[in-house]
Amino acid sequence: MTTQAESYEFQVETRQLLQLMINSIYSDKDLFLRELISNASDALDKLRLERFNDDTLDVDTSDLHIRIDLDATERTLTISDNGIGMSRDEVVNLIGKIANSGTAEFVRQLKEAQKEAEGEGATEELIGRFGVGFYSSFMVADRVTLITRRAGQAEATRWESAGEATYTIEALEEAPQGTSITLHLKPADPEDRLFDYTDPRKVREIVTRYSDFITWPIRMEALQVPTPEEGEEPPAPEFETVNSRKALWTRPASEVTDEEYAELYKRISHDWNDPLETIRLNIEGTLQYQALLFLPERATANLFSPDAKHGVQLYVNRVFVMDDAEELLPPYLRFVKGVVDSQDLALNVSREILQQDRQIESMRKRLTKRVLQSVKGLAANEPEKYTKFWDEFGRVLKEGLLQDFANRDAILEVSSFLTTHDPEKRTSLRDYVERMQEGQDKIYFLTGDSRQAIENSPYMEAFRAKELEVLLLTDPIDEVWVDGMPEFDGKQFQSVAKGEIDLDEKEEAEREEQKEQFSGLLTWMSGVLTEDVKEVRLSNRLTTSPACVVSDENDATPTLVNLYRAMGQPIPQERRILELNPKHALVEGLRTAHEARPEDPKLAETVELVHGMALLAEGTQPDDPARFVNLLATQLGESLNK
Ligand SMILES: Nc1ncnc2c1ncn2[C@@H]1O[C@H](COP(=O)(O)OP(=O)(O)OP(=O)(O)O)[C@@H](O)[C@H]1O
């Protein structure tokens, strides 16, 4: 027997909110299910807690679960839970009114934003600030019936509304404990992203997308029901649990196996391989969150494309909120995959909010530190894994040297580089510094396209002769970060292709003598090449090549100039310096020839050739390659006929 249904009016604010729901402020209507499942899950948590605190409470908590029933003929979706339920008063206060003054404020602000011309963006942002929970049912239903019985109470309550001005309430004598909400669905309209929510596949898809990690089982009728034999009664429907419930990050680390981590990783990353490393983080305190992050074994093909996705998913209390949460880790850690589950954010937090949120910023800092720490751990304890990691992601990580000044030292500490010290293995800067020679106070490096190109470069000659270790930086990004990096461990970085290099303890007297011998040649050559170089001087870095071009200490190298040009930020290329090897036969020959025949026009051509060769040796084209080749061919031809 039921009592007469009584009709009540909604509060003004509730009515406004319902109107907004009906007119769909969310573009993604599937979200209604996430909201209802979250409410059901909360109700189950509450019952468990109440039972824990009061063991006289007469309730069966042995099979707490959520169930979803679909009826295509009646066009209904019913979601039930055997959780805490609600008393009649609670229904009136919690469902009939907007108990939360924040929600009322939300409605007010939303109306205002919508009145203004630029409504769209503002609306989206506002939605992210407030929860709208239960009312989101009205995005997909034109009538909602709720039947509920509070745990430990005998009387049940039925609430119903068509989302307009009123709702009805009546007492029921009987109902299962917990809450069951039936949505009388609007006709499907896929163009408006209003799908057919009586389709079990669609509903399963939404459950696994948003609610897969809910602790409680979410049950639905099994998809494959065997067809009954002729004349037999159809079997009772079988139910199965459709969510994996495997929120591994909420379980103690000791209870989770590597296989389980790998399985979760593969699901969220769509990678076939196991992760290279798993990182767990559990933060308690004013801000509570857990993270389960993975370093993949391989880089994805689009890692360097501008639309590369970030790999971290954001959850709020085990409920999926968004993919690709780029606010949680800096761009140079975009290869990290995983899950961050916060207990402090609102379920419908928007990207706009994430971007401004101080809590998110503190999360990002913490997560970044933790990832770098874990790379450091690999470098120290698992060199093979570290090498694999660096092969795949070193280039991306080094972007951090330009983006994240706060962690610059930490990134340098875990970086490794090709080196003349070892033909195969890379070196860390720490190891380089330890190997530095007596009296050496700089970290020497040279940038270039490949190990081979750098090693064959004339700049390396004196360093090789002195057995001084040089880092061989072959990634384009190296050129940029090293240019702005003050030092590592108190040692400055020094390009072997820049500035004056003096490795020789040659006698001052010998040097002075050379200077004097060559001063006429140097002055004359500077005049010949005045358009191309700012100085011609004797070199201390060459042993076998006749000449090389170097940049002044503070000038950009040609590679850097090209890089900036490619990025659309042209910087000027300063004139460079031509250095001559006084011991080379060509240079010596040029000196004596110039002394003997200062006016010979052929000699000026030879100077041009020396300059062109120096450019070629570093991989730069002479300004006029055709002229260079012609001059060379003529001179070679003449030398044969002498
Ligand atoms: N399945 C349920 N069982 C028991 N109580 C429920 C259930 N669904 C909703 N309620 C009660 O109704 C209240 C209002 O629900 P509603 O979804 O509107 O907002 P909320 O869950 O409090 O906040 P949010 O906006 O974060 O969803 C809940 O706080 C809860 O007390």
Automatic annotation (TrEMBL):
<dbReference type="InterPro" id="IPR020575">
    <property type="entry name" value="Hsp90_N"/>
</dbReference>
<comment type="function">
    <text>Molecular chaperone. Has ATPase activity.</text>
</comment>
<keyword id="KW-0963">Cytoplasm</keyword>
<feature type="region of interest" description="A; substrate-binding">
    <location>
        <begin position="1"/>
        <end position="351"/>
    </location>
</feature>
<feature type="region of interest" description="C">
    <location>
        <begin position="563"/>
        <end position="642"/>
    </location>
</feature>
<feature type="domain" description="Histidine kinase/HSP90-like ATPase">
    <location>
        <begin position="28"/>
        <end position="189"/>
    </location>
</feature>
<dbReference type="InterPro" id="IPR001404">
    <property type="entry name" value="Hsp90_fam"/>
</dbReference>
<keyword id="KW-0067">ATP-binding</keyword>
<dbReference type="Pfam" id="PF00183">
    <property type="entry name" value="HSP90"/>
</dbReference>
<dbReference type="Pfam" id="PF13589">
    <property type="entry name" value="HATPase_c_3"/>
</dbReference>
<keyword id="KW-0143">Chaperone</keyword>
<protein>
    <recommendedName>
        <fullName>Chaperone protein HtpG</fullName>
    </recommendedName>
</protein>
<comment type="subunit">
    <text>Homodimer.</text>
</comment>
<keyword id="KW-0547">Nucleotide-binding</keyword>
<dbReference type="InterPro" id="IPR036890">
    <property type="entry name" value="HATPase_C_sf"/>
</dbReference>
<keyword id="KW-0346">Stress response</keyword>
<comment type="similarity">
    <text>Belongs to the heat shock protein 90 family.</text>
</comment>
<dbReference type="InterPro" id="IPR020568">
    <property type="entry name" value="Ribosomal_Su5_D2-typ_SF"/>
</dbReference>
<dbReference type="InterPro" id="IPR003594">
    <property type="entry name" value="HATPase_dom"/>
</dbReference>
<dbReference type="InterPro" id="IPR037196">
    <property type="entry name" value="HSP90_C"/>
</dbReference>
